[in-house]
Write a structure and sequence with these properties.
Chain A: Keywords: DNA replication, Nucleus. Chain A: Its main location: nucleus. Chain A: It is found in: Nucleus. Chain A: InterPro entries: GINS_A (IPR021151), GINS_bundle-like_dom_sf (IPR036224), GINS_Sld5 (IPR008591), Sld5_GINS_A (IPR038749). Chain A: This is GINS subunit domain-containing protein. The complex is a heterodimer of chains A (about 220) and B (about 210). Chain A is of the alpha+beta class and about 220 residues long. Chain A folds into three domains: about 100 residues, Methane Monooxygenase Hydroxylase, Chain G, domain 1 (Up-down Bundle); about 60 residues, no CATH class; about 55 residues, Ribosomal Protein L9, domain 1, CATH 3.40.5.60. In chain A, about 55% of the residues lie in helices and about 15% in strands. In chain A, strand 1 and strand 2 form a beta hairpin. In chain A, helix 2 packs across helix 3, helix 2 packs parallel to helix 4 and helix 3 packs antiparallel against helix 4. By secondary structure, chain B is mainly alpha-helical. A three-stranded antiparallel β-sheet of chain B has the order 4-1-5. In chain B, a hairpin with a 2-residue loop joins strand 2 and strand 3. In chain B, helix 3 runs parallel beside helix 5. Classes of the chains: A alpha+beta (about 220), B mainly alpha (about 210). At the A-B interface, helix 1, helix 2, helix 3, helix 4 and strand 1 of A face helix 1, helix 2, strand 6 and helix 6 of B.
Chain lengths: ~220, ~210
């Protein structure tokens, strides 16, 4: 493979130094965007970022009151805006996924991946959706077909509940040498940069933790 | 509740990719004094006139827009380096040359805001465009090699913007192959017991013989 020095000249790889909270939040957002199912809520990270945002907001207020240099204030404001945007995007993509798969999440252990506010949101979503479906459609269907979760009384499972597609393809980017990587029954070498593969395999790596250290879902 | 996959949830817009790229570090040469900046994303400065400093691209562009600094184009953005890359891209029909992950976004921002800081700007700009064209042509050729047996595709050295462009299409193409092909796979695996293992590998890109 290409020698180390050549590679590091070209690829200023920010993923290697994902130490700041902003970097971590960026990574959380990307992973959330790229994966079909909802991931664990990064409670401590979000808390820390919230605190830093509040602190910076106060600082900017003080600087404005003191009549400090316009340039500095606007630069701090930009940093603030960028961080807020990042945080909002992360929360927003999670809410979108929750809205899409509310019932499925509430019935599986994915529920544990939501924050308490998200859980409250999901509860209300379910109630509203059920009411709406019952009033507009289900109440008018013949008996035996009125259930929100099942197609008909004959269904054994809740087959009207959409599930996130776990066999979809995803893009990943590895952060370094992974060495041979088991993919279905074949062995692939994934060295640096990208590959696309079945999300379930990626999920396996996510679960056993080797994921967080080596691979990165890429939009 | 049709359960059709909803692509727009998982897509990044080009603007969002640019947002990521704006955190890349660049060198600037400020022309004024600025106190140290303790930001959420990091600590920068203090800035002294004529002393180069490293800042994130968004900060560099903000300062440049206000006429407070000059941006030093990164080393890889020189005519010499880009010529090497362009030749190498043209020579190898299946491989991508290593380039910074966000080269598209970085060059675009610098061309837009820091024209006067780039020596031979027009030449550099046309070279970057050529590089993008050659690379994307390779991407398109590679997309044609997808078949029902493609399980994974390795794209070494693809850049952020290029990946983002092909991601929706290629994911749905592979999904469609997978969805429409499951019965075939079942019958194939039975039939391939007698065939050599070559048939199972499926086409793949940029696999270097070892």
């Amino acid at each position: 493979m290409a020698s180390g020095s050549e590679d590091t000249f070209w690829t200023q790889d920010p993923e290697v130094a994902a130490s700041t909270d902003v970097e971590l939040l960026k990574r959380a957002w990307r992973n959330e965007k790229a994966s079909p199912e909802i991931l664990r809520f990064e409670e401590p990270l979000v808390e820390r970022v919230r605190e830093q945002i509040e602190l910076l907001e106060q600082t900017v207020e003080e600087l404005r009151a003191e009549g400090k240099d316009e340039l500095m204030i606007s630069l701090y404001q930009m940093d603030l805006d960028r961080t807020l945007y990042l945080l909002r995007s992360y929360l927003r993509i999670r809410l979108q996924k929750i809205e899409k798969y509310t019932i499925h999440i509430s019935k599986t252990d994915l529920w544990g991946r939501l924050s308490s506010q998200e859980q409250a949101f999901a509860q209300r979503c379910i109630i509203i959706m059920k009411e709406h479906l019952e009033q507009s459609v289900l109440g008018k269907l013949p008996d035996g077909y009125k259930d929100v979760l099942k197609q008909s009384l004959a269904s054994e499972d809740d087959d009207m509940v959409p599930e996130p597609p776990l066999d979809t393809f995803v893009f990943c980017k590895s952060r370094g040498d992974l060495g041979p990587f088991q993919l279905d029954d074949s062995v692939y070498y994934m060295i640096v940069h990208r590959c696309k593969n079945d999300y379930r395999l990626v999920q396996k790596h996510m679960e056993d933790g080797s994921w967080a250290l080596v691979m990165l879902l890429i939009p | 509740m049709a359960g059709q996959s909803d692509p727009h949830v998982s897509l990044f817009s080009p603007a969002e990719i640019e947002f990521f790229a704006e955190d890349e570090m660049v060198d600037i040469v400020p022309n004024l004094r600025v106190e140290a900046l303790n930001m959420i994303c990091g600590d920068y400065g203090p800035f002294t006139p004529q002393i180069p400093a490293k800042v994130p691209l968004w900060l560099a562009v903000a300062l440049k827009k206000r006429g407070k600094c000059a941006i030093r184009p990164p080393e890889w953005m020189s005519v010499e380096r880009l010529t090497q890359v362009l030749e190498a891209e043209r020579d190898s029909s299946r491989e991508f040359q290593p380039l910074p992950f966000h080269y598209v976004e970085i060059t675009k921002l610098l061309f837009h805001f820091a024209q006067d800081d780039i020596p031979d700007m027009y030449l550099v700009k046309s070279m970057v465009e050529d590089i993008r064209d050659v690379r994307f042509h390779k991407v398109e050729l590679g997309l044609e090699t997808f078949t029902n047996r493609t399980q994974a595709v390795k794209l070494k050295n693809l850049s952020a913007m290029e990946a983002n462009i092909i991601r929706p299409f290629s994911v749905r193409a592979l999904q469609a192959f997978y969805k429409h092909d499951i019965p075939d796979v079942a019958s194939q695996t039975a039939a391939t017991v007698n065939r050599p293992s070559m048939a199972d590998r499926g086409p793949r890109r940029t696999l270097r013989p070892r």
